[in-house]
Amino acid sequence: MEPELNFHRPDDKTLQVCLAGDWMLGNDIPSAARFSEKIGAASSVERVSFYTGDLGGWDTGLLTFLVRTIKECSPAGIAVDKTGLPPGVQRLLSLASAVPVAKGAKKEPARFSILERVGEWAESFWRGLLEMTAFTGEATVAFTRLITGRARFRRRDLLLTMQQCGAQALPIVSLISVLVGLILAFIGAIQLKLFGAQIYVASLVGIGMVRALAAIMTGVIMSGRTGASFAAQLGTMQVNEEIDALKTLGIPPMEFLVLPRMIALFLMMPLLSLYADLMGILGGFAIGVSMLGLNFTEYYNKTKESVRLDDFWIGLFSAAAFGVLVALAGCMRGMQCGRSASAVGEAATSAVVTSIVSIVVAMAVITVICHVLNI
Q: Taking the model in full, what pTM does it have?
């Protein structure tokens, strides 16, 4: 039976609450707000009693209703007569009221001053810097062991990771590179047409893509695609205690898990950047032919004349450096992942952010060095 709530007035000063049906959590239990409205409408009530002759089954749903009812009566000074309730309900209500709420059990939002927040941020930043330095040192030691032929990892893992980082990333790299070349050429064409210098669109696209943009865009793509994947993979292994199992077996996780990913991305990033150079130049060529009336020979000769071999080497070096940074960021966040499912998502997000920030900083440093060396 569905739970029912009715009210009866035996006399002017008494309100009798009549409970009927099954007061179970799965049923549509009446709200305590109905009792509050009844009390508010009847100002002469000084006593509340209960009638449960038609009450069926009950569980904590009934107890919750009664606790709220009793709390409504206390501020108004209304006496509550519990004799009409079942003995089990009376005992549970007595037990609930006999144990007071522990002091400090209800947590209140902590308020910190600006100085405390700055100190906490500085401490967190310093701790993260130490962890990053330690992880970079361990990765350097693992790479040294690789050079001396003592690193332990499976070669097929390296080949599989190279396939995932290289061949499987070609579609997204192709799309983004062509679009970047199109956008760069379109922006340049609008301004250069004002001076009749449309042919220099080839120089703008060629130098921009080969020297910087191809490597940067490829690095950003691999940050979101591969860096986050590395963090999620290692983070899941951390949650499942697979990394602890490797340590127990005497297998260094840095060599077995991190090293193949670093090598794969270090080798694949320059190749992807070189491919992005070609796709970006093709995108600029499409704008040059369709909007500026240039032919293939003119565009090709101007690109060949403008782009130097040093530009290619700078772009390839930048791409290789970005590959190492993306792999380090993804693997570091994965190895530092917590032991929960939400921590895996946080590790993936942090890996992407760290990778992109590292790429931007590294590109700024490389640009300054090239300016100082006049290359």
A: 0.69
